[in-house]
């Protein structure tokens, strides 16, 4: 069953002023379409002047804050729609489809992405013990929430450092630590606790997820994977689906198909050889599952993507 989630925020003059400053900073440091790296290693600025088609990615843990525009993110059959000054947290590595649904040259889509290091979250929990340890519970490894003023101020201070590069080495880690602290103290903070605290079942699922991201082309034994993370096969299946909205086999299939698409775009290899490389037993099985995810056969899909890239480069 499809689940649709959206979130909006009420107007506020103070928030609007901060948002305007964030937008101005982003337009300077992300002057054109694309994902822009910054002098702060974990900080990325994303811009689009037009709505986009769905882009399939394997999203590492991170915080995303939309400053301007609107986006839809799909996890399995669940849809999450969010807009300015709301944030999305991806707490475990997930195969997602993201589509900008509101953007224009005058009002471009602007998004801040800050990578999350679970080890840093774990250290922060240890150092700030009053945060506490949550009750064990498995929820999605992705959630939306409203941004509050303390978190917004911390984000703004982090971006302001781009104008004072000499201060980045000293002050950026402090701003990032405050941002993660605010997330932990927020209504959804328990979800970050769960992936950072060793020996919780959700942390074990995150270990299974990282193993799959490294070994996705190999045959998958649920029993062996469950034994590796010290869970029963039934507990692995239940907890894994609670966190990712997919079974381990469905998750592996998403990884395989996304990597196959990347290889087909980057290499001149034929479809059959890429399918075998990704662990598929027959070209017809590979083509069928590829078409189901991307909406067209591998050859037609890659031809379309290459035509779009050529058109964009000549524009």
TrEMBL record:
Taxon lineage: Bacteria, Pseudomonadati, Pseudomonadota, Gammaproteobacteria, Pseudomonadales
Identification of the protein by name: AraC family transcriptional regulator
Gene3D superfamilies per the UniProt record, alphabetical: Homeodomain-like (1.10.10.60)
Protein's UniProt keywords contain Transcription: yes
Record domain HTH araC/xylS-type: where: 206-304
Domain of life of the native organism: Bacteria
Keywords noted in UniProt: DNA-binding, Transcription, Transcription regulation
GO molecular function list: DNA-binding transcription factor activity; sequence-specific DNA binding
């Amino acid at each position: 069953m499809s689940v649709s989630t959206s979130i909006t925020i009420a107007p506020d003059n103070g928030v609007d002023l901060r948002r305007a400053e964030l937008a101005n900073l982003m337009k300077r440091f992300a002057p054109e379409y694309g994902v822009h790296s910054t002098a702060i290693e974990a900080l990325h600025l994303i811009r689009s002047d037009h709505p986009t088609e769905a882009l399939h990615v394997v999203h590492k843990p991170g915080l995303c804050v939309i400053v301007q525009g609107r986006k839809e993110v799909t996890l399995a059959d669940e849809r999450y729609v969010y807009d300015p000054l709301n944030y999305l947290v991806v707490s475990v590595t997930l195969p997602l489809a993201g589509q900008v649904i509101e953007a224009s040259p005058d009002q471009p889509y602007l998004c801040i992405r800050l990578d999350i290091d679970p080890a840093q979250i774990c250290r922060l929990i240890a150092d700030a013990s009053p945060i506490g340890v949550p009750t064990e519970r498995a929820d999605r490894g992705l959630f939306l929430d409203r941004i509050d003023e303390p978190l917004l101020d911390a984000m703004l201070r982090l971006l302001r450092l781009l104008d004072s590069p000499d201060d980045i080495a000293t002050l950026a880690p402090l701003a990032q630590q405050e941002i993660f602290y605010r997330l932990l103290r927020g209504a959804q903070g328990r979800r970050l606790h769960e992936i950072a605290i060793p020996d919780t079942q959700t942390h074990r699922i995150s270990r299974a997820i990282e193993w799959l991201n490294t070994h996705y082309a190999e045959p998958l034994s649920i029993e062996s994977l469950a034994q590796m993370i010290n869970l029963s096969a039934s507990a692995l299946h239940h907890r894994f689906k609670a966190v990712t909205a997919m079974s381990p086999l469905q998750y592996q299939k998403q990884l395989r198909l996304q990597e196959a698409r990347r290889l087909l775009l980057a290499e001149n290899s034929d479809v059959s050889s890429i399918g075998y490389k990704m662990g598929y037993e027959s070209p017809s099985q590979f083509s069928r599952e590829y078409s189901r995810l991307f909406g067209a056969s591998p050859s037609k899909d890659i031809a379309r993507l290459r035509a779009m890239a050529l058109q964009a480069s000549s524009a």
